[in-house]
Amino acid sequence: MTLLYFQYFQIFSLLLALVCRKGLNFFSIGILIPILLVDNASDIIGANYTRIFHSPDNYFVFNVYYLVSTPLYLYLFAIMLKGDHRERRRIFVTGVVIELLIAANYLFIQGHLAFDSFTSLLVNLTNFVFSCLILTRLAMRKEEDKHLLVDPYFWINAMILLFSLVSMIALGLQKYIAVNHIQLVGKNLYFALMQAANAALYTGYSGAIVLCQTQRSK
Amino acid sequence: MPDAKEQITTTIFAVIFVLLFFGVLFIVMLTYIHYRRRQNAREKKEMQDQFDQHLMQSRLEIQEQTFRYLSEEIHDHVGQLLSLAKIQLSSFKETEPVDFPMLKDAGANVARALQDLRSLAKGLHAGHIRHFSIREAVDEEVARIRKAGGLVVSVTSEGTEKKIKEEKQLILFRIIQECLQNCLKHSAATNINIGFTWYAEQLRVRVRDDGTGFDTENNPALRNGLGLENIRNRASLSGGSSIIHSRPGEGTTVTVQIPYE
């Protein structure tokens, strides 16, 4: 089984989330465990897909990943936004529309054999918008006693924001990079960028999980 | 085409770098905004605590002053009258015939003491004041002073009378009471004028006497002794302001301005 270096960060954050599940539940973000499970599963399968299934690429895995993970992420955002019933309903409607677009792209537009770069752009753009919204709301909230840097929501959203910025470029240009063999120090540019971005994202998640647990213990 | 690829790689990196820069800048900005908001909230809380402490101190001072006033009133008036009545009554002996004029006099003294107590209670009871407008409450207070005699007290009013918030009315009434007490006890005044001016947003009350006056600038101890600090505190507590003007031989004028709401 092949494991890329960022996957160690990913597995570590999943194990940490399982150990600190009470801390996550304390902050109502227990949904992070299924998210990390889906992330881990898709990346492990994706890294070994071509070898096991003798397939020329692993696009199918990541196209399905977007279909499965997007509602989970939207649910996480809805919780972190701490909005009222109306706002949650709006997020639900947004989620349904996005999911329909992803499904339409998967089935009819780019298809399941090619990498769905439109889906990737849409999902990362959605993540970017929601993480910006949550961060702004966190900064403007009324409970002034808590510092922003010790808030687990802050680290999760800050990392999602930065990750989605890198992803929008790297995943959007994925096909172009692959076709033109654009490389960075002997490695495919897409892999080089995405692995570093993933490592940073899961490090941020791990930090947030630890914060959840330590603040629950207080 | 190695140059073209290099160019594309550099461009992609530049775009990512710029985006990440703005992303990090956004996060740092939000963190800074949050930090400033927390700091402002902390400062506001400190100010509020300070104000509460000040308020508490003022309340204690006012309470202390009220107790002193009560003690003086009971000792100087009610106590004297009751002592006199007691002396008069103790002079009666079972063996001697009853001196009816003295008995009547003792009864009158007890009645005056009772009247003084009632009047004192009426002046202090906030519930009583709340039933009237500020003008009516002041008129009643003035009637009480007039009854005691020795002073000419006039009340004037300009403009249309407006309703003042209940708590503010009570504070204003206590300020006027304080001014009148000062006139009675310290100023040796013969004339007092209480002037109400009803403006659109606020009420101005001016209590003026023709007494001895005092030097407010050079005698802060006297200023505190006369409860002038309390007048200022009370006025600012109700969102208003006060000006105390006095000079030796020229009488004293206390002007208080309080918003209606």
Structural commentary:
The complex is a heterodimer of chains A (218) and B (261). By secondary structure, chain A is mostly helical. Chain A is 79% helix and 2% strand. Chain A has helices at 5-19, 21-26, 32-53, 59-81, 85-109, 117-140, 152-172, 174-180, 189-217; strands at 183-184, 187-188. In chain A, a hairpin with a 2-residue loop joins strand 1 and strand 2 (187-188). Chain A is globular. Chain B is of the alpha+beta class and 261 residues long. Chain B is built from seven helices and five strands; from the N terminus they run H-H-H-H-E-H-E-E-H-H-E-E. In chain B, helix 1 (2-90) packs across helix 7 and helix 5 (166-187) runs antiparallel to helix 7 (228-237). The longest helix of chain B has 89 residues, at 2-90. Chain B starts with a helix and ends with a strand. The mean pLDDT of chain B is 83. The A-B interface holds A 132, 135-136, 138-140, 144-145, 147-149, 158, 161-162, 165-166, 168-170, 173, 177, 180-184, 189, 193 and B 5, 8-9, 12, 15-16, 19-20, 23-24, 26-27, 30-31, 33-35, 37-38, 41-42.
Summarize the structure.
Chain A is mainly alpha-helical and 218 residues long. Chain A is 79% helix and 2% strand.
Task: Using brief descriptors, characterize the structure shown.
heterodimer; A: 218 residues; mainly alpha; two-stranded antiparallel ribbon; 9 helices; B: 261 residues; alpha+beta; Heat Shock Protein 90; 3 domains; five-stranded mixed sheet; 7 helices; 66% helix
How is the topology of this model organized?
The complex is a heterodimer of chains A (218) and B (261).
Chain A: H1 5-19, H2 21-26, H3 32-53, H4 59-81, H5 85-109, H6 117-140, H7 152-172, H8 174-180, E1 183-184, E2 187-188, H9 189-217
Antiparallel strand pairs in A: 1-2
Helix pairs in contact in A: 1-3, 1-9, 3-4, 4-5, 4-6, 5-6, 6-7, 7-9
Chain B: H1 2-90, H2 100-124, H3 126-130, H4 134-148, E1 152-158, H5 166-187, E2 191-198, E3 202-209, H6 220-225, H7 228-237, E4 241-246, E5 252-259
Parallel strand pairs in B: 1-2
Antiparallel strand pairs in B: 2-3, 3-5, 4-5
Helix pairs in contact in B: 1-2, 1-7, 4-5, 5-7
